[in-house]
C-alpha cells in the first residue's frame, strides 16, 4: 500500500527522485528490526512477538502519509522498516513452528499468502487513487484493519510445543546461542543471492523489455506481471513438491529452472520469448527462499527466531542490493547482459542446494487442540 502511494507522497513532500531514492534506503531499518526480533522471539515466543510486530507494522504504515518533508518522511520510513522487519522474522519463526507440528512442508503456502496480499494491496490502492482519497485516509484505514487483524489472530497463534526449549518468562530466560553456526550463515548467503534475483525482477524486468526490446509500455509491464504471477502460483504448489521430492531437489531444480528462464529472457530478441523467460524465472525462484527459511528454523528449535532473522536479514539486503547493483553495471555493459549476475547466483544456489537437507530427527507433534 505504501508503494502504490509513493508518487503522490513524493509530490506532496516536494522531494526529488534522487532524495526519494536515498530515503528508500531507510527501509533497511527492516534489517535492524529483524536482527533485534530474532532473539526476542526465541526468548518470549512467536505467539507473543507476532502480534506486537503486526501492530507496529500496521500502525507505522500511516506515517508516510503524514510526512510533510524529507526529514519526516525519512523518519516514517525508518519506523515502518523496523516494524516490517519485526513482523517478517516473528511470523516466519511461527511458520516454522506450525511446519514442525504438521510434519510436512507448509512454509511456501505462507509466502504465497504474502504474495497474494501484495496483489490485493495494489488493486485496493489503485482503486482508492481513482477515488482521489488522500494517502492519510487510505493508509489510516489500512492501519486500523491491520491492528484489528493482529488482535483477532493473536489468540489463535500456537504456544511453544518443544519441551526441550520451553519458554518460561517467569523463570530463567532462554537465550539463543551467542554465536550463529556457519551453516546458518551459508543459508543466509544463499538467501541474499536468491532475493537479489527477486529484486532484479521487481525493478528491471519491465525496463528490460522497454529499453532492450523496445516494447510498448503496456507490454513491458507484463514482464513483472508474468514474473509475479508464476511466483505466486509456484509458491502455492511448492509445498507439495517439497513433500514429494524433498527440499534439496526443489531448491536445486528451482534455481536451475530460474537460471534457464532468465538466460532466455536476457538473450532473446523476441518479446514473447522474453516474457516467457521472466515467467519461468518467477516459477523457478518461487520455492527457493521458503526452503532456506524452513531449513534455518528447523536447525535448532530453541534458536529458530535468531536463525530465521539471520537468513531473512541478509536476504532482505540482497533484495535491496539487486536493483542497485544492476544500475551501475548497465553503464558498463548492455542491460540484458547484466542479468547474468543473477543467473550466476541461481547457478551457485543450485550447486549448493544440499545445504537445506533436513536433519535426521522426528519433530514433536502439536497438541490436538492446537492443530
TrEMBL record:
Keyword presence, Membrane: yes
Membrane topology, as annotated: Multi-pass membrane protein
Intracellular or extracellular location(s): Cell membrane
Keyword terms: Membrane, Transmembrane, Transmembrane helix
Transmembrane segments: 15-36, 106-126, 138-158, 184-201, 221-238, 250-271, 277-296, 308-329, 335-356
All copies of domain Major facilitator superfamily (MFS) profile, residue ranges: 1-361
Keyword Transmembrane helix assigned: yes
InterPro entries, per database record: MFS, MFS_dom, MFS_trans_sf, MFS_Transporter
CDD domains documented for this protein: MFS_MosC_like
Name by which UniProt lists this protein: MFS transporter
Amino acid at each position: 500500500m505504501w508503494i502504490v502511494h509513493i508518487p503522490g507522497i513524493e509530490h506532496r513532500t516536494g522531494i526529488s527522485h534522487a532524495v526519494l531514492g536515498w530515503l528508500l534506503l531507510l527501509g533497511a531499518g527492516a534489517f535492524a528490526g529483524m536482527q533485534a526480533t530474532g532473539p526476542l522471539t526465541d526468548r518470549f515466543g512467536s505467539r507473543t512477538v507476532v502480534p506486537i510486530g503486526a501492530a507496529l507494522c500496521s500502525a507505522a504504515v500511516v506515517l508516510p502519509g503524514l510526512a510533510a518533508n524529507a526529514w519526516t518522511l525519512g523518519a516514517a520510513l525508518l519506523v515502518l522498516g523496523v516494524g516490517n522487519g519485526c513482523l517478517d522474522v516473528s511470523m516466519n519463526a511461527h511458520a516454522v513452528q506450525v511446519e514442525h507440528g504438521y510434519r510436512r512442508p507448509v512454509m511456501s503456502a505462507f509466502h504465497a499468502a504474502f504474495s497474494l496480499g501484495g496483489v490485493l494491496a495494489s488493486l485496493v490502492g489503485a482503486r482508492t487513487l481513482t477515488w482521489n482519497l488522500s494517502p492519510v485516509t487510505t493508509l489510516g484505514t489500512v492501519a486500523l484493519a491491520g491492528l484489528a487483524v493482529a488482535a483477532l489472530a493473536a489468540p489463535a497463534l500456537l504456544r511453544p510445543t518443544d519441551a526441550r526449549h520451553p519458554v518460561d518468562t517467569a523463570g530463567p530466560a532462554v537465550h539463543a546461542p551467542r554465536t550463529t553456526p556457519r551453516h546458518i550463515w551459508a543459508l543466509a548467503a544463499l538467501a541474499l543471492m536468491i532475493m537479489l534475483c527477486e529484486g532484479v525482477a521487481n525493478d528491471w524486468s519491465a525496463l528490460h523489455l522497454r529499453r532492450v526490446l523496445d516494447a510498448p509500455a503496456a507490454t513491458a509491464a507484463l514482464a513483472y506481471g508474468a514474473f509475479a504471477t508464476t511466483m505466486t502460483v509456484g509458491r502455492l504448489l511448492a509445498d507439495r513438491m517439497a513433500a514429494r521430492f524433498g527440499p534439496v531437489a526443489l531448491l536445486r531444480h528451482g534455481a536451475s529452472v530460474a537460471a534457464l528462464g532468465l538466460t532466455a529472457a536476457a538473450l532473446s530478441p523476441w518479446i514473447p520469448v522474453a516474457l516467457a523467460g521472466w515467467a519461468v524465472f518467477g516459477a523457478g525462484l518461487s520455492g527457493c527462499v521458503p526452503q532456506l527459511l524452513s531449513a534455518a528454523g528447523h536447525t535448532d528449535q530453541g534458536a529458530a527466531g535468531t536463525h530465521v532473522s539471520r537468513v531473512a536479514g541478509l536476504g532482505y539486503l540482497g533484495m535491496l542490493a539487486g536493483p542497485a547493483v544492476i544500475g551501475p553495471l548497465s553503464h558498463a555493459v548492455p542491460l540484458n547482459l547484466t542479468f547474468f549476475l543473477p543467473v550466476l547466483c541461481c547457478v551457485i544456489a543450485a550447486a549448493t542446494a544440499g545445504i537445506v537437507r533436513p536433519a535426521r530427527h522426528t519433530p514433536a507433534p502439536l497438541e490436538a487442540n492446537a492443530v
